[in-house]
Amino acid sequence: MTRGSRFRNFAIGSPMVWIAVFVVVPYLIVVLFSFLTRNPEGIVTWILTLENYRELFSPVFLKVCMNSLVLALGTTVLTLLLAYPFAFILTRIDENIRRFLLVLMIIPFWTSSLIRTYALIILFKANGLLNTFLLSMGLISEPLSILYTETAVFIGLVYTLLPFMILPLYASLLKLDRRLMEAARDLGATSRHVFFHIVLPLTLPGIIAGSTMVFLPALGLFYIPDLLGGARSMLIGNFIKNQFLTTGNWPLGSAASVMLTLLMVMLLIWFFISTRRVHSGDMEAVR
Amino acid sequence: MKKVLVLFLVFFLPLGAFAAGKEVYVFNWSQYIDPEVLELFQKETGIAVKYSTFESNEAMFAKLKILKKDGYDVAFPSTYFVERMSRLGMLKPLDHSKLPNMKNLNQDLLNKPYDPNNAYSIPYLWGSSAIGVNAKVVDPASITSWDDLWNPAYKGKVLLMDDVRDVFAMSLRSLGYSGNETDPARIKEAYEKLLKLIPSVKVFNSDSPKQPFLNNEVVIGQIWGGEVYQANEENPDIKYVYPKEGATFWVDSMVIPASARNIDYAHAFIDFMCRPDIAKINCEYVGYATANAKAQEMLDERTRNHKAAYPDKADLDRGEFQTDVGDAIMIYEKYWEMLKTQ
To answer: What CDD domains has UniProt attached to this entry (chain B) (predicted)?
Structure first.
């Protein structure tokens, strides 16, 4: 065995052991627990059952899922609408300004997102910075009610997840061949036509990648809706947490976690299939 | 494979492997003891404190359940977890002769239904959840009952705890039942009453219910007494009202888990915590009310007479301590989910 291969084995092996010990094993325990029975005197009883999964098909849990899906979908659409023009402009400006803007976008990540969410509360609360400013300018006579509304939840989610949309879009817009746009214009296409028939189809992989990177975390982030929305509606994350911490129903909580993972895996598979389809579509277009 | 096994051992067996000298293993809520107290204890007794923390009763319960031996010597469960753990044989009975400082404790907090004669637990810090109002908007004198939360005048300005037991206890008490009800029909009745309150609720918060009050987002709601005491340092207009149906009380207690490795050191630690000067240090550091009557007398006048932190006897007697509702918690949670998916 040579030195190089030993190093390679170590470099590949140590993260694998790490993942196996702290991700795969705990997850397998979750999967196992999801088929066991709740034990009010302890944690679980070793009786195999499918009851936990059956219980998930209740109107309440479906409503919980719908709440989460609507929130995640809304966030994805809003971030896309905001990020696309921004990423587009980013590819067309002076390189130094572009680098500066990219750095500005990364800087908030140096602070925990939980702390940034608390900062939003300070901004939006009835006697917060925004309301104090608007009141002192005489623009409003009563403080605006922003905190603990859906608006606040969407602002919080969009704010936190926007960079995950911008970066993939920026990457795919950067690869866009300008000559195709020029050619289309030369042939008499309007700006709208150029956008919908050239730019949009060619950046579709970026849109799909960005949407996945926003949608999946938005499904699981429950502390932002809790803190900014006043915890008035229950999301999948809250549901899972309550099973573990309130009722001590670890099997049901595990089953809900497994369902959430399955949902995400299906979305990822859909993402891979649709990107591949887009790519093969490209090839045909070129041909 | 052997290496993986060694790795497992290193990660999962840090306890037990290094037991040497005089040590006491303490398992407490985070930020719930003045670190200075741990040093004082070691200096006076020569027993080193191995200190770990938890974030919820359930997490503590699960860990103690898994540890069969060589576990923690002292743990700090809340009110009804003492009851559940003693019922499940997870606690060692206390030897009161080894706890002479017990005499300093507030007699009103001893011998409660969750632990008759304090066979298993010694109260540490305690408090209540009752009604908070912003006196700038709501006259505190006009608030006497939990029912006042249902007043349509406060629509969109009400705060509730984000805790199923606390919210249902309030509704049950307002119906004249116990907050520890296990009768499904009565829990359902409380749920139906809460349905009418939900449209008025602006926010659910039990992490720091004082914040929505300080932010002028709510004018009335459920709140911990200790939070009102803290909020008053910033805004004296936030008042605390004990409703006529009674507030809900909680106590965090010290217990000796069945898996304890040194019962004598555990008693020594608990007794030390009951010393008035030590209880005073902890109470001032944590900011909740001390269960130590002698320590309470030593506090400054404003603190010791603040009704939100130290209720008078009538309010305490009217109130109720949370007890374990057993499997009825599943019924509570089902209705809670329904409330939150309206």
So the answer is: PBP2_PotD_PotF_like
How many angstroms separate the CA atoms of B252 and B258, rounded?
18
Which of B203, B219, B322 is the best mutation test for A, with the most CBs of A within 10 A?
Answer: B203
Which letter does DSSP use for residue B47 in this model?
P
A121 touching chain B per CB within 8 A? yes
Task: Work out the angle between the directed axes of helices B164-174 and B184-197 (0-180°, nearest 10).
Answer: 100
Q: Are B11 and A21 inside 8 Å of each other by CB?
A: yes
Q: Tell me, what DSSP letter sits at residue A110?
A: G
First to last CA, chain B: 53
Kindly report the backbone phi and psi dihedral angles of residue A128, in degrees, each rounded to the nearest multiple of 5, phi listed first.
-90, -175
Ordered domains of chain B (ranges, CATH): 9-125+251-308 (3.40.190.10), 127-249+320-339 (3.40.190.10)
CATH of A69-234, one of 3.40.30.10, 1.10.3720.10, 1.10.357.10, 3.30.450.20: 1.10.3720.10
Nearest one of B198, B205, B197 to B222, comparing CA atoms = B205
* A21: contact with B, CB 8 A cutoff: yes
Residues in B touching A17 (Cβ below 8 Å) = 4, 7
What ipTM was reported for this prediction? Answer: 0.85
Q: Give pLDDT tens digits along chain B (342 positions).
A: 445 444 444 444 444 444 458 999 999 998 899 999 999 999 999 999 999 998 888 889 888 988 888 899 999 999 889 999 999 999 999 999 999 999 999 999 999 989 999 999 999 999 999 999 999 999 999 999 999 999 999 999 999 999 999 999 999 999 999 999 999 999 999 999 999 999 999 999 988 899 999 999 999 999 999 899 889 989 999 999 999 999 999 999 999 999 999 999 999 999 999 999 999 999 988 888 999 999 999 998 888 888 888 998 899 999 999 888 989 999 999 999 999 998
Cα of first residue to Cα of last residue in chain A, in angstroms, is: 48
Residue A232 touches partner B, C-beta closer than 8 Å: yes
User: Which pair of structure tokens corresponds to residue B224?
Assistant: 């911990």
**Using CA atoms, how far apart are residues B263 and B95, in angstroms rounded to an integer?**
10
Flag whether residue A242 sits within 8 Å of chain B, measured between CB atoms. yes
